Amino acid sequence: MKAMILAAGLGTRLGSLTKDKPKALVPFGGRPMLEGLILRLKGQGFEDILINVHHHAEQIMQFVKEHQALGVDIRFSHEKDALLDTGGAIAFAKNFFKGAEPVLIHNVDVYSDINFRKLFEFHTRKQSMATLVVRDRETGRKLLFDEEMGLKGWENQKTGERKWVKEPHENLSSLAYSGIYVVSPDFAENIPFTGAFSIIDTWLKMASDYPIYGWFDANSLWYDLGSPDRIKRAEEELQF
C-alpha cells in the first residue's frame, strides 16, 4: 500500500517550535510526529511512502536516513524552489501515483485512529477519483456534500463565501475536512492546474468531471497538531 505524507509546510502556527526544525520533527507523544505517523501507517500495511519536503528539508531526510529501522520504503518529493501548496504538491509528485492501487495522502500534523482499509474499501466501491475524510467538528471552512456524500461545494462559514461544483445546490451537509484523503492512481495526472495551488480548488474543479466523495469518520480520536496548545491538549487527553 502507498501513502504520501504532506510535510513541506512552514509550520507557522507552531511558532518558535519550527524556527530551527520542520513541523514534521516537532515532538508529539515522546517522538517526532513524522515518526509516529510512519509507524501508524506501517501498522496498517503501508510499505511505500513518499514525503514532500521544503522547510528544513535536509533535517527530515537526515532523520529518515538515521531511522532505517522504520522498516518501510521512504522517498522524498523535494520542493526546493518554492512551496507548491496542498494541490501543487500532488501534481509535482505525479509519478508516485502511477500504478494500479489507490494512494493515501495524509497531513503530517494530524493524529487519528482511522481504519484505512475501510476507507480504501469505500473508495474502491464508489469507484471514486478522490475520497475525502470528513468529520462533524467546529471549523470556519467546510465542504458541502449531497445525501450520497458526493462533493458539491465549499463554504466559509464566517464570511458566507461559497464555491460550487458546476452550480449552487440545496439541502447539503457541511462537514470539516480532516487532513486525510485517498485518490485513484490517475488522480495526479488529471489535475487541471499547474504551479502552486490549493487542493480544495482542485477537488471542486475535478468534481465536475469525476466522482469525488466524502467518507464520514465518526471515530472519537482525531487531533490537529498544528499549534502548541493543540499538541499539549492531545498529549494530555491521550495520556502520553
Task: Describe the protein in words.
Helices cover 26% and strands 28% of the residues. It has 7 helices and 14 strands. It is of the alpha/beta class. It starts with a strand and ends with a helix. Strands 1, 4, 5, 6, 8, 9, 10, 11, 12 and 13 form a 10-stranded mixed sheet that branches. α3 crosses α6. β10 and β11 (162-164) form a beta hairpin. The protein has one domain (2-238): Alpha-Beta Complex (Spore Coat Polysaccharide Biosynthesis Protein SpsA, Chain A), CATH 3.90.550.10. The radius of gyration is 17 Å and the shape is globular.
- Beta-strand portion reads 25-35%
- For CATH, the homologous superfamily is named as Spore Coat Polysaccharide Biosynthesis Protein SpsA, Chain A
Number of strands: 14
Tell me the CATH architecture: Alpha-Beta Complex
Quote the average pLDDT.
Answer: 95
Radius of gyration: 17 Å
Terminal-residue CA separation? 29 Å
Short structural summary:
Helix content is 26%, strand content 28%. By secondary structure, it is of the alpha/beta class.
